[in-house]
Amino acid sequence: MKIVSYNVNGIKARLPRLIEYLDAEKPDVVCLQELKSSDETFPERDIRDAGYGAVWHGQKGFNGVAILTRGGDPKERRRGLDGDPDDTHSRYLEAEVDGLIVASIYLPNGNPLPGPKFDYKIAWFDRLLDRAATLLAEERPVVLAGDYNVIPNDDDVFSVGAMGSDALMQPESRAAYRRLLAQGWTDSLRTRFPGGGVWTFWDYQAGAWQRDCGFRIDHLLLSPQAADRFGDAGVDKSWRGLEKASDHAPTWVRLRQG
């Protein structure tokens, strides 16, 4: 089973690339982030015509997450996180697919810092930690897939100096990510590439793609029951180089059937 995390950076703008990806790679589950689309304008028909069912949690112009499944419909379990009833951002969606629990996550960016956006990032991460702990307590195979907006390690970025003042690399951001792993989650891409140097994002500016100046912020974390089924992980990097592509590449983990 191939599970993909893919920040599309606007589903309407990237729809041709997404449909091509689904047709070529035929992933079993795709967690999308940054839809930038309301619930009403999500392209459900195009997704279904490509052979995928979907659940989605949209937000006009910002954020937005979805879960696609090949050949059927995912069963939605939860949208949004507890802990802030006034939070209107569409950043978390959870579903069940063939006995596997999957969450699509778009964690706040946090820039500029210091300030309220960075404070919101860390507070949101704390709410995610609470939900992640609850999921672990179910003792089931779970994949937390998404754009975490955290560069976990120095070898996950092309230049520590270039990104050192960014919210993605602050000690508080990294500490929150480490607390998540410490609950018992496995970073699938790190497991496959323990030496780092694997990017999932290349900025549109300054020729970052052409110079391979990227970093790793898209992560698929596995519960112990999912980690027992780990087969492989990687980045479908070539899709970043296509015309009108997202600035993220599809990032994936492959699990053996349970």
From TrEMBL:
Keyword Protease: no
Origin: domain of life: Bacteria
Enzyme class: hydrolase
Keywords: Hydrolase, Magnesium, Metal-binding
Pfam families linked: Exo_endo_phos
GO terms, molecular function: double-stranded DNA 3'-5' DNA exonuclease activity
Domain Endonuclease/exonuclease/phosphatase: 4-248
Cofactors demanded by this protein: Mg(2+)
The EC number(s) this enzyme carries: 3.1.11.2
InterPro entries reported for this sequence: AP_endonuc_1, AP_endonuclease_F1_BS, Endo/exonuclease/phosphatase, ExoIII-like
NCBIfam families noted in UniProt: exoDNase_III, xth
Protein name per its UniProtKB record: Exodeoxyribonuclease III
Annotated organism of origin: Stakelama flava
Gene coding for it: xth
